[in-house]
Amino acid sequence: xxxxxxxxxxxxxxxxxxxxxxxxxxxxxxxxxxxxxxxxxxxxxxxxxxxxxxxxxxxxxxxxxxxxxxxxxxxxxxxxxxxxxxxxxxxxxxxxxxxxxxxxxxxxxxxxxxxxxxxxxxxxxxxxxxxxxxxxxxxxxxxxxxxxxxxxxxxxxxxx
Length: 160
Known about the structure:
Layout: E1 2-9, E2 12-54, E3 57-69, E4 72-84, E5 87-100, E6 103-135, H1 137-159
Parallel strand pairs: 1-2, 2-3, 3-4, 4-5, 5-6
């Protein structure tokens, strides 16, 4: 499908390409478009200038503006990313990232704003808000020191 506007409700499709994509309660392998709106959709790959996913799941989401609301994504990468009540093991943003009551594994952006969110590792120039991060720079330094010490002792023991 390669059209100006594609709308699909309760269906299945392999590849969808259009300037405006609106899909509800469906499963799609790949979506590519300018403005992509998905509600209750399962997709393998989503690529668009502006992507909005509500109660959906996707393996890879790429775009200029990505907005996930009550959704799950394997990797979310964009210029600006917003996660509301969502989960993403890897969330990358070139400029701004907003996390609102969401969870993420690895989060990286220039500027991150959070509200009651959690992450495993957070990398940013500026972080604002309430966030629980499992590994901060001090924890990473301590873990690296312990692992380096153990590897050094094992290397000395192997020589003997």
